[in-house]
Specification:
- With about 300 residues, the chain is mostly helical.
- The protein contains 14 helices and no strands.
Length: about 300
Amino acid sequence: MKNLYFLIFPILIIVGFIFFNFLQKKMNMKRHLKKIEENNNLVNLNNYRDNYDELKNNSLSYKLKKLYIRSGLKIGYKNYFFVFIVLSSLSAFFTAALASAYFAAAIVFPFIAFVLPVLILKVKVRRRKNKFISDFPRAIDAVIRAVQTGLPLFDGFSLLAVEFKEPIKGEFQQLVESRKLGSSLQDCVNGLADRIECAETRFFAAVIHIQSQSGGSIAESLRNLSDVIRAKKRMKDKIKSLAAEAKASAYIIGCLPFFIVAAIYFTSPKYIELLFTTDTGNLTIIVSGIWMAVGVAIMYKMVKFEI
């Protein structure tokens, strides 16, 4: 068991060192950018700004913040992760203190502190995006009716921000507020497409952009877009029903090892306790978990269809 800890701690130190170097590089670029701005060197300023923006967009903190914004959670960003850090600390402490399961505590802490909050955010983002796509055609139809009655396009968006349910309401509220603060309508729609990242919102932003540049009937363009989104949803539901059997098989295969381990543990605990009480058993659990994760990822790719 001690050998395992001696293996884990250097890995954590290496990860921390990499993160520290990344953070230091980011702060150095920020300081250089500030100095160049003070010297009014426009050529180097643009180069450093591009490098800094690229580094910022690829950083883990920026991606987590973007994922949090897309989830639509009401709790604060820092408070959300703080709650999981507290829960992970308490869980690891009670696991180690009450059950004397130090190996399990070493797994519980990083999982609850770092993995679980990201998984919850991804689930929230996926559900929110699916709900948005499901309600989006009706929202477009409401905008079409508002435009046909003589209202401006922006008033149609304001109508969605008041009368529709979440997430349509929240997203168009942000769009309306951005427009009132001085942003152009195209920038506001592009912001919507960035928060709800899917083909439907990109098509919507493209339609608004083309109509603002070339003119024409915005109601007719939006009606065609609504028909395309509905046809895409029907095709997606059809493929989902055809793939239901394969997904059920993948779920059964993925859950079967855990049921077998649980059954052996309750029927013959002495037979399986070697996995938890010896270094070889712990190593076996780690290797098996890695291979299980690889297998689940492959099955997930096999049953996931993008349209």
